[in-house]
């Protein structure tokens, strides 16, 4: 039930369309020369490959010891049809799943992260070595300022720790031991790619050079590090 509430809140935040996206070229991302020498870890979600199996979410929950009913990521199911209009494939006006697609809902790992800006104690911060937005549990006062400031509604209070939580690419679990994020490791369809986009030789950099990708509401100026490769249907 709590996951359904979180999904509805996320969709409400994004507006009538659950994923209002714009090409990367339309956003004002300009990294300074100093930033270019630091890692910029990002993730790519390929909507063309995701089947919505949910194994990524299960792996995340296990790796990060999340309490029951809470997740750092959700898989939102979408239909290609229009509400009230007959499906062009089967003719049904109700949900049929003929054009079923999924969207990853999680922290966007913004370069200009509002959660970090508003945190009064410094608990929400950017890791010095990796640049990943994460939490210092010892400093979190549970004020929920970061939750209110997040334009993607992707943060929550972990009831077992009383600390605000977010996807930090498994910084303190998998990355800490030299492994990829749990969700990336678990995805059997290669729908998730993780790496340093400041490294021109990395696979994620090479992928983004040849694939069109988009980000959620780049107009916010948050500069999300989560990139989406949307489904593009070709005519026959």
From TrEMBL:
<keyword id="KW-0479">Metal-binding</keyword>
<feature type="domain" description="4Fe-4S ferredoxin-type">
    <location>
        <begin position="41"/>
        <end position="69"/>
    </location>
</feature>
<keyword id="KW-0411">Iron-sulfur</keyword>
<dbReference type="InterPro" id="IPR017896">
    <property type="entry name" value="4Fe4S_Fe-S-bd"/>
</dbReference>
<keyword id="KW-0408">Iron</keyword>
<dbReference type="InterPro" id="IPR006311">
    <property type="entry name" value="TAT_signal"/>
</dbReference>
<protein>
    <submittedName>
        <fullName>4Fe-4S dicluster domain-containing protein</fullName>
    </submittedName>
</protein>
<feature type="domain" description="4Fe-4S ferredoxin-type">
    <location>
        <begin position="99"/>
        <end position="129"/>
    </location>
</feature>
<dbReference type="Pfam" id="PF13247">
    <property type="entry name" value="Fer4_11"/>
</dbReference>
<dbReference type="Pfam" id="PF00037">
    <property type="entry name" value="Fer4"/>
</dbReference>
<dbReference type="InterPro" id="IPR017900">
    <property type="entry name" value="4Fe4S_Fe_S_CS"/>
</dbReference>
<keyword id="KW-0004">4Fe-4S</keyword>
<dbReference type="InterPro" id="IPR050954">
    <property type="entry name" value="ET_IronSulfur_Cluster-Binding"/>
</dbReference>
<feature type="domain" description="4Fe-4S ferredoxin-type">
    <location>
        <begin position="131"/>
        <end position="160"/>
    </location>
</feature>
């Amino acid at each position: 039930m709590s996951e359904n509430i979180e999904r509805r809140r996320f969709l409400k935040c994004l507006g009538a369309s659950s994923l209002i996206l714009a090409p990367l070229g339309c956003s004002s991302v300009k990294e300074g020369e100093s930033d270019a020498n630091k890692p910029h870890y990002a993730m790519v979600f390929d909507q063309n490959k995701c089947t919505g199996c949910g194994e990524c979410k299960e792996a995340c929950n296990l790796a990060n010891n999340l309490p029951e009913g809470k997740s750092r990521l959700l898989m939102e199911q979408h239909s290609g049809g229009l509400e009230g209009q007959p499906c062009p494939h089967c003719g049904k006006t109700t949900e049929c799943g003929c054009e079923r697609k999924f969207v990853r809902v999680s922290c966007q790992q913004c370069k200009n992260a509002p959660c970090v800006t508003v945190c009064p104690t410094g608990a929400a911060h950017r890791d010095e070595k990796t640049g990943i937005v994460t939490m210092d549990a010892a400093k979190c006062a549970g004020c929920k300022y970061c939750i209110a400031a997040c334009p993607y509604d992707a943060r929550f209070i972990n009831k077992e720790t009383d600390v605000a939580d977010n996807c930090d690419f498994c910084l303190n679990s998998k990355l800490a031991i030299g492994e990829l994020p749990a969700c990336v490791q678990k995805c059997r369809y290669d729908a998730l790619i993780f790496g340093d986009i400041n490294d021109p030789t990395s696979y994620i950099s090479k992928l983004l050079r040849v694939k069109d990708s988009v980000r959620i509401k780049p107009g916010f100026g948050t500069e999300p590090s989560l990139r989406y490769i949307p489904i593009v249907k070709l005519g026959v």
